[in-house]
Structures are given as C-alpha cells and as structure tokens.
Structures
1.
Amino acid sequence: MKKVQGAMPCRKPGKAEFVRVRPGEEWRLMTAVLEMERGIERQTYLVAPHLWPELSGEISPALLLTCVNRQSDMFVWRIKLPGADGRSNSWTESALQIAKAAETRWCRLVSDVGNGHYSHFEPTVALPDPQWPEISFQEIIRLAFRDRLIDSLDHPVIRELRGAA
C-alpha cells in the first residue's frame, strides 16, 4: 500500500515533533507570503511574484522549506525573513539555524520565550534518515497552497484587505 498525498500543511514544526528539512536548493523557495488572521485562525497565502510591488506593504518575505516528521508526514515550514529594512530578529535567525541543522539530523524546535529565540533538541539515540516521498517540489507547493495562491488583485483576500469584499 502507498500513501497518497492529498494535502500539504504549511506550518511550523510542532514543539513535540522531531523533523528533518530536505537539503538542496531545489527543495526550498524564497518568496513572499501574506498572513491573514481571523480570530485564532491564521492562514498563509503564497503571493505570485508579479504582485509583490503592488502588495509590498502587506506581504512578507519568506523561505518555504520541505520538511518531514518521524511519522513520514510531509509539510512546508514557512520561515519569515527580514523585510525591506533588512532587520532580522532572534526568532528568525534561530529558526534558520535550526532549519540548517535539520538538513543533516533530526531536530525538535522549541520556543524559548524567556530568551526570545528558538532552541532545538536532538534525539539521544540514532534515528534512521527520513524516507522522502516521491513527489516533486512543484507538487508540494501546489498541494500546500492549492486554495491559498494569490495570483491576481481580484483575489477575495486582496479584495477583503482593500475593503471591496
């Protein structure tokens, strides 16, 4: 029996899960995203590059990484990058360092609120390397953002932001 990937979450690794990041530039994307919060629900939308100038005050640069957990569940990890001012913060810097470490070993990401950054833990026993599902990066992005791709200023989310919806 073969698992069929029907959806792909875009999320941060859970604080109790060990994850690996798929190494290689072909498994990541530097892009821009729009985050919408409605109450406790937060949605991340992928924004087409031709719209970046028009939406520059509302979007954030982001790095999208292909990840897998110990249960072989794939997901996309979105790490916000510094904005136009180039100023980073300790949360972003520590997330990027942990993502780099997770390319070669299993890591568990934990928020260290008191110190204002992420810490990571590694397992105390050797774990086998992940078995990456046979799926292209283009398909991963399509599954992760299938109904959350903004490719037009007529998109309902953009219309809502501009008071037209």
2.
Amino acid sequence: MEHFFDVMYRVLEYPLVHFGETRLTLSMLLTVLLMLGSVVLAEMLLRRFFIMRLLRRTHLEPALQYAVGKIIGYGVMALGFYIAFQMAGINLSSLAVLAGAIGVGLGFGLQNIISNFISGLIVLAERPIAIGDRIEVGSVAGCVTKISLRSTTVLTNDNITIIVPNADFITQRVVNWTHGDPRVRFHIPVGVAYGSDVDKVRRLMLDVAAEHPKVLKEPAPEVFLAAFGDSSLNMELIAWTTEMSHSPDTFRSELNFALERKFRANKVEIPFPQRDLHVRSGNWPVPSAKAG
C-alpha cells in the first residue's frame, strides 16, 4: 500500500511543463480545474440567488437587471479565476510572455469571436435590444429570448430559434419594433369598387377596428382614402396595437378576415382588376405576296 501511494505521489507531482520557476504538475492541474469549476458554480449560484434577487428590489427595468447581473457575474468569474491560479501556486507573471505570443496568434484566428464578444458588451451596456423585444436584423425577424456575450437568440413566428452574432447588432441596421414603447401602428390596405359609398365604407372599417379586442382605443383607429387606383378606391385602415411583439401576422390576418366579412354582409364590393378593351372596325390592307 505504501508503494502504491508513493507511485501516486510521484505521478501527481511529476512536472509536466515549466514556466520559469513554476512547475506545472498533474496535481496542480487537477487543483486548478477543480477550483475553476467551483468558481463557475459559485458565480452561477451567486448571480441567481443573490444578485438577481437584489436587483429585483430596485426600480431598474428587467432587461437592465439582466444586463447588470451578467456583467457582475463575468467580473466575479474573472476575479475568481485570478484567485484560483494564485492559490494553486501558478505564477501568472511567468506566463506573460507565453500568453502574449499565444494572444497574437489567436488574435488573427479568433477575431470574429472577439468582435462578437466586444459587441456583446456594447449591447449589454447600451441596451439597443432587450429580452422580449421584437426585432429585425438582416433577414432575421423575431422575438429576443436570450442575450449572451457572443450571440443573441431570436425566436421567429415559426418557432425557429436563430442564433445571431452580436456583431450584427453593431454593424447592421436593427429595427426594434418595441424599443421603449410596445405600441405599433398597423396599415391595413383594402380596395373597394368605384361608386361605393366611401362614408359607409369608412364607418364599416372603423367598426371592424372597434370590435377587435387587440386594437387599442388610444390612439384611436383611422381610415384614409389612400389613392384612386386603376380598378378600385384604395382605402387604408390605421390601427394601433401591442401585438407586434407577439403575433403580428395573426393580428393582420384577423383584421383582413373581419373586413372581408363586414364588406360581404353590407354589400360592399371588392373589385377584380379591370381593363377596358377598345376594338376598332375598318378595312386593313393586306400586303400580297410577290410572285417568285
């Protein structure tokens, strides 16, 4: 048994790598890994059961509470990693030259990751987007469900989760439909036949808006005669709602269905495209074929 423990001691204390005066042994490596895991676990518990509970007692918005909690958590992890290396006996000053050389090489290979990391810090600090916002960036449109330092998770209306790099929120144009105020104005166009009673049509469209439970009473809905089209009078219903962050396509479809039912019940015609064809009569000269 003593021989076994002696062998285990020699294995654990065998120097793997030398960093100046520091010898990295297997026991030191296991100690560092154990301490780093403890730091990660401690940060998660501290942020969940102390920091977030403390922030909830403040008057900060939920999105800002999340951002502050994340930043404090990463700071705790950085401090914990530094203390773990010191307690394990690893002299960080001896790793400075090696870290510098590795950093130069990794800087070129990981520039996109670093860019996304810095962009994540900017997003968390400036808060152009927040959890629950309805956004459009590039060809992605959906609701923000998670913001991390490298990427942001967006859930589309088709229940598809898309991971968007944070750099896209800094370098591209971002449309945030619910930033600051969740109310959004919807434009619902519809054409009616020429000769229709436009006052009656306007009243029917306002009735549809008033009957829909998700249309806001303030600002009040409006109806405009947008244009005289080729085949119809182009009307437009303007309605305010907060549904942009939940189900905008469903809201728009419900209004269109309601307008069609209301017009059909009140004999208001939605015309087909029409074209007038004029045929002129007369004698048309027919050229004769030349004799060969």
3.
Amino acid sequence: MGTEHTVRSFDEEIARLRGLIAEMGGLAELSAQEAVHALIHRNLELADAVVMRDKKLDALEAEVDRLAVRVIALRAPMADDLREVVAALKIAGMLERIGDYAKNIAKRVERIEVSKAFEPLTLLPAMAEVATDMVHDVMTAYAARDAALALDVIERDAKVDAFYNSIFRNLVSHMIENPSTISSAAQLLFITRNLERIGDHATNVAEMVHFAALGTYPVEE
C-alpha cells in the first residue's frame, strides 16, 4: 500500500511539473504575440499587460524549480523519469527567457515613433509569426513527447535568422537614408534581436524535448 501511494504521489508530481511547463509555454507564446501586436498597432495598454505578465512567468519558473528539486531529492528518479524532471527544469528557464524577450519588446513600443510604415517594420510581423509558431509547436511537441516535431522546430530557426539578417540590413540602410529615424530604427534593431532570441530559445526547448523523449540530443548536420 505504501509503495502504491509513493508511486501515485510521484506520478502526481510529474503531472504537476508538466502542467506548470504547459502553462508557462502558453503565457510565453501569448506574450510574444501580444508584444508584436502592441508594436504594430501602437497599443500601449497591451504592451503594459505583456510587461506585467512577466511576473507570472517568473513565479511559475520558481515553482517549477522548487518542485523539480523536491522530486529529485525525495524520489531519486531514474532513467526516463529523471530525464523528465531535468527537461522540465531546463525548459522552465528557457520559457522564462522567452517571456523576458517579449517584455523587452513591449517596453520599447512607446519609444518608437514612426509616422508611416517602412519596410523593416512591415517585415517584423512575418518574423514574429515564425518565431511564435516555433514556441507553439515546441510546446505541442513537449506535451506529446514528439521528437520529430521538435526536430522540425529546430530546422525553422534558420528562417528566423534569415529574417533577422534581412531586417538588420534594411534598418541600417534606412537609417543612412533617413537620419531622422535613427532613434526608432535603433529600437527596432533591438526588437528584431529579441525575436531572433525567441527563436533560439524555442530551438533550445526543442532540443530538451528531443532529449526527454529519446535520451539523446539532436545531432547537428
């Protein structure tokens, strides 16, 4: 009876860990989407909401840390179970960073003054869509322990990098041709970099999903 209770308690703790990671993933994805929406539509209220939401992500990460340490200390998990706990611990940190990048984007919304749309700004939503889709899909892969989908997410990071390089070149050219926009363009450079980092961290999560599912990290070609 005691063994059954221990097993049931352990299963409940693992389920709790998975639930916390899923909640963090949903909030991180939402924050990234809303931060870019706030930027494009100059919605300062929405930007403020993204900034405030970051506190919730921080609190969830702390809860994951406490629970993961408790499980390792008291349950001494082995093999697949240990990978599950380690993956949750690392993924929580990565999702918290995605929230930080979204917050950074939101904080810059009020600092950008663009009287009319120009090409670098029009490219940002497409870049953001790829990056946020990566976050969405990697959380789907996490829930299903889908290593193949995790690999697909990793491959998409090259598209985010291509967007970053294109927007960077466009912004530099725009600043040279339109010196009066240098301040706003510089803010957009920071925003583009944050989106690129969101893609990087979605890739890192995908690598941990692959590890949790198969016990190996993806091999770089």
